[in-house]
Amino acid sequence: MALLDFFDKRKKDPNVEMSFIDHLEELRWHIIRAVIGVLAGAILVFVFIKDIVSKIIFAPTRADFISAKWLCIIGRKIGMGDAICFPEVHAKFLENQMTGQFISSFTLAFVGGFIVAFPYVFWEFWKFVKPALSPKERKKTRGVIFWVSFLFFLGVAFGYYILTPFMVNFYFNYTLSEQIVIMPSFSDYLENLIWTTVGIGVLFQMPLLVMVLARIGIVKAKFLKKYRRHAFVIIITAAAIITPSTDPFSLTIVTIPLYALYEASIILASRINKRQDEAMNEWS
Predict the structure, then answer these.
(1) Cα separation, 91 vs 171, whole angstroms
(2) pTM of the entire structure?
(3) Residue 34: C-alpha distances to residues 116, 151, 212, 214, 276 (Å)
(4) What are the pLDDT digits (tens) for 88-110?
(5) Contact call for residues 165 and 113 (beta carbons, < 8 A)
(6) Which of 23, 67, 90 has the alpha carbon at shortest distance from 158?
(7) pLDDT digits (tens, 9 = 90+) for 221-243
(8) Distances from the Cα of 152 to the Cαs of 78, 146, 188, 198, 264, in angstroms?
(9) Which residues does 94 contact at the CB level (< 8 Å), separation at least 6?
């Protein structure tokens, strides 16, 4: 009843001052609805778990994976022959724990549910934050749900279609001796796949984060340009944390798009700062 009274109060007077407890109550229900959205996505993933594992999770380990075929076609068209074609990988995974596959199924379901429900999860978060913005700020943040979701899915796609097949091909074909048999656990492979998809999807939010910080005056384009070298070190560190391996090859694949996003952030911040300076000049 307290919750119903709270919503009734908001409907009667949208400008009513909310107490700290009211804010916590509202945040709690936004979180609950977001969790329900993730659970709904997790149930959907769990229903088709076997098909998802065979057709999606294990797909980057095969030589006929779509990005592997495209890379091979591009190499042939530019005169490189089969130099950048992925060799055949006979990937097998060992699970030496009785509960390993069962736990991995739930891990995959919840992570998949989060990816599927990500736009809704962010929408719930945005509904909580939006009332605190001024009408002018709300106008400037139109389309934020689309862009946050777009960058997240772009990062997930980059990790899945580019980084994962390169990583799998490199490690399964790298060997010190024929006596060494590469047979990682499925749990290990799934954990690496999660880091290289969801982790990079989160890192791809950098331009929007910089844009928000620039609009509220915390970050300036001059500052970002001045500390490019420091940012490059931070990006490499973040790439090393996100990628399951720290070899130069994987780090390079992750670092290049992240640094490109940093440069895009500088361009966005420059435009925002320019508009802010023009507005200040009009007022003066």
Answers:
(1) 10
(2) 0.78
(3) 12, 19, 23, 28, 35
(4) 677 788 888 888 888 999 999 99
(5) no
(6) 67
(7) 888 888 888 888 888 887 777 66
(8) 32, 10, 23, 8, 16
(9) 183, 184, 185, 186
